[in-house]
Amino acid sequence: MGVSGNELFPLIIALGTFLLIPISLFALVLFIRALLLAIPILKKLNKEMK
User: Fold this and answer.
1) Residue-wise over 39-48: b if at least 16 C-beta within 10 A, else e?
2) How far apart are CA 49 and CA 43, in angstroms?
3) CA angle 16-21-23, nearest 5°?
4) C-alpha distances in angstroms, 37 versus 3, 14, 21?
5) DSSP-derived secondary structure letter, 15
6) How far apart are CA 36 and CA 1, in angstroms?
7) Residue-level pLDDT at 49
8) What is the C-alpha separation between 8 and 16, in angstroms, rounded?
9) What is the pLDDT of residues 1-50, one digit of tens each?
10) What is d(CA 39, CA 33) in angstroms, rounded to the nearest whole number?
11) Distance of alpha carbon 6 from alpha carbon 14, whole angstroms
12) Distance (Å, whole) CA 38 – CA 32
């Protein structure tokens, strides 16, 4: 197997991009869920502060 660094580099980028898409989508979903959970808590805190 005579695989040079130049042949390996695009493969690593392709793999990285392929893995990054589901990870970023997952992070986005978690972020939205955290926001939805935080909104009622923040509202409750806001009422207690006044």
Assistant:
1) eeeeeeeeee
2) 10
3) 90
4) 49, 35, 24
5) H
6) 52
7) 84
8) 12
9) 566 767 888 889 999 999 999 999 999 999 999 999 999 999 999 999 87
10) 10
11) 13
12) 10
Token digits for 15? 């793999």
Residue 38's nearest CA partner among 27, 30, 28 is 30
DSSP 24-48: HHHHHHHHHHHHHHHHHHHHHHHHH
Token code pair at residue 29? 């979903």
pTM: predicted TM-score of the whole model, two decimal places: 0.56
Q: Which two tokens stand for residue 39?
A: 């909104």
Alpha carbons 15 and 24: distance in angstroms, whole number: 14
The residue whose two tokens read 């009422």 is 47
